[in-house]
Specification:
The chain is mostly helical. It has one domain. 81% of the residues lie in helices and 0% in strands. It is globular.
Length: 277
C-alpha cells in the first residue's frame, strides 16, 4: 500500500490530538492529586489546631481549679499573725514602732525596702517549692499550685501589714482580697463589696482571680507537661508568679498608704490650725 502525503498529514494530526488529550488528562490527574493533597494538609492543620486548643482548654481548667482550691484553702487556713509580724518588724528589721498605726511615721523608703525583702523571700520560697514539685510534671501541678497560692497570699498579707493595713475585721479582710484581685489584674468595684457579706464576697473574688490567672498563665504552664525538665520550668514560673503578684500588691498598698498618710497629715494640720486660732 502506497502512502501519499495526505495520509501522512492525517496521521500527524491524529497523533497531535491524542497527545493533547493525554496531556489534558495528565493535567487533570495532577490537579486532582494536588487538590486532594491540599485538602489533606488543610485537614491535618485544622485537626492539629483543634487538638492544641483542646489541650490548652484542658490545661487551663486544671490550672483554674487548682488555683481556686488553693486560694480558697489559703483563705480558710493561712493567716500571718499581725502581732508576731509586728515583733518581727521591730526585732529583725529594727522598725521603731509599737503598733501598726506607728507605720505612718516611718519613712516610706524604709517601708518600700521591707516590702521588696518580703517579695524576694516569697519568690525564693516559691521557686524552691516549684522545683521540687516540678519533678512530677503535670501530675504534681495541682498540689504545686495549691501551695503557690498559699505562698502568694502570705506575701500579700505581709505587704498589707508593712503598709499599715491589718485584716482583723470582715471589712479589712475584704480589702485584703481586693488587693489580691488587683495583684491578679482583676478590678473589683467597691460597690460590689458594699452589697455582699464577706463570706460570699471572698469566694467570688477567688473565682475571678483563678480565671484571670489561668488565662494569663496557660501558655507558660504548658511547659509543666514535660517531667524532670519541668522542675526548672516550675521553679522559674513560681518565681516570676510571686514577683509579678507581689509587685502589683505592693503598688496597691503603697498607694493606699500614701493616701491615708496625706489624710492624717491634713487632719493634724487642721487640729494645729484650730489650736492656734
Amino acid at each position: 500500500m502506497q502512502f501519499s502525503s495526505w495520509h501522512f498529514r492525517c496521521l500527524d494530526r491524529s497523533i497531535r490530538r491524542l497527545g493533547g488529550l493525554w496531556i489534558k488528562q495528565s493535567d487533570l490527574r495532577t490537579a486532582n492529586w494536588e487538590q486532594r493533597t491540599g485538602f489533606s494538609v488543610l485537614l491535618e492543620l485544622t485537626s492539629g489546631q483543634m487538638a492544641e486548643q483542646q489541650r490548652k482548654s484542658w490545661l487551663r481548667r486544671r490550672v483554674e481549679n487548682a488555683l481556686r482550691r488553693g486560694f480558697q484553702h489559703a483563705y480558710e487556713t493561712v493567716k500571718v499573725d499581725p502581732n508576731k509580724f509586728l515583733l518581727q518588724l521591730r526585732a529583725a528589721y529594727g522598725v521603731p514602732i509599737n503598733t501598726f498605726q506607728g507605720i505612718y511615721s516611718v519613712d516610706v523608703s524604709v517601708l518600700d525596702d521591707l516590702a521588696n525583702r518580703v517579695i524576694h523571700s516569697g519568690m525564693k520560697l516559691a521557686a524552691a517549692e516549684g522545683a521540687g514539685f516540678g519533678l512530677g510534671g503535670i501530675l504534681t501541678m495541682v498540689p504545686d499550685l495549691s501551695i503557690l497560692a498559699g505562698i502568694t497570699l502570705r506575701t500579700i498579707q505581709k505587704l498589707s501589714l508593712i503598709y499599715g493595713f491589718e485584716y482583723n475585721t470582715d471589712e479589712e479582710t475584704a480589702e485584703l482580697w481586693i488587693a489580691a484581685a488587683s495583684a491578679a489584674g482583676v478590678d473589683i468595684s467597691r460597690e460590689v463589696l458594699e452589697k455582699e457579706v464577706v463570706n460570699r464576697f471572698v469566694p467570688k473574688v477567688i473565682q475571678r482571680i483563678a480565671v484571670q490567672a489561668s488565662k494569663e498563665g496557660v501558655e507558660k504552664w504548658s511547659g509543666r507537661v514535660i517531667p524532670i525538665a519541668s522542675s526548672a520550668i516550675g521553679a522559674g514560673l513560681n518565681y516570676y508568679f510571686v514577683r509579678a503578684w507581689g509587685e502589683r500588691a505592693k503598688a496597691h498598698f503603697r498607694q493606699k498608704h500614701l493616701n491615708r498618710r496625706r489624710r492624717l497629715s491634713a487632719g493634724v494640720d487642721s487640729l494645729v490650725a484650730k489650736s492656734q486660732a
